[in-house]
Amino acid sequence: MFRDRRGVSETVGFVLVFSLVMLTVGTVLTVGYAGLQDARDAERAFDVLANNIEDITARGAPIRGTEIRLAEASIGPGAPVTMNISGFAADGSRQFSTGNNTLDTIEYEADGTKIRYTGGAVTRVQSDGSTLLGDPNYRLANDSVIIPIVELTV
After folding, report:
1. Which phi and psi angles does 36 have, rounded to 5°?
2. Is 147 left (phi over 0), alpha (psi -120 to 50) or beta?
């Protein structure tokens, strides 16, 4: 009357491991979701900010407003960015350079992530690098390039 109890111990082990995995996933979703939602809201707000600035500079809108919620975050001036654009004609005949232009930035920071607006571009900066979130409003054609530079007072 010797019975093998290995099936019971494997079932108990599976239930314990499955419970641990579900508890971990539930905790990450509960705690991390709010932070992810705040970062996503800030990215959207900066996209709206970039569109509003483009409305003012390119379309002549008299005024625009943007709201950004600062739940456990901060907003203010970021480190200045230096922009130098240089190039030459397709035939190599003309060479040009804009020289160094220093641009101020608006920077939102929360939980180690920074979202910046500078020179018409919105970027997310993290410890492992940065990502362009919205294309700047540059106009590129075969014979001309228009790069609007907005001077910010932050």
Report:
1. -65, -40
2. beta
Which tens digit of pLDDT belongs to each residue from 65-123? 888 777 778 888 988 888 888 877 777 777 878 888 888 888 888 877 888 888 888 88
Residue 115 to residue 109: CA distance in whole angstroms: 6
- Give the CA angle between residues 111, 116, 121 to the nearest 5°: 145
> pTM (2 decimals)?
0.64
CA angle 97, 100, 106 (to 5 degrees): 130
Read off the pLDDT of residues 33-50 as tens digits, 9 standing for 90 and up: 766 776 777 778 888 888
Q: E strands of 1-94, at which residues? A: 74-77, 81-83, 86-88
**What span, in angstroms and rounded, lies between the C-alpha atoms of 106 and 68?**
12
Two tokens, residue 153? 């007072």
Domain residue ranges of the chain, discontinuous segments joined by +? 6-146
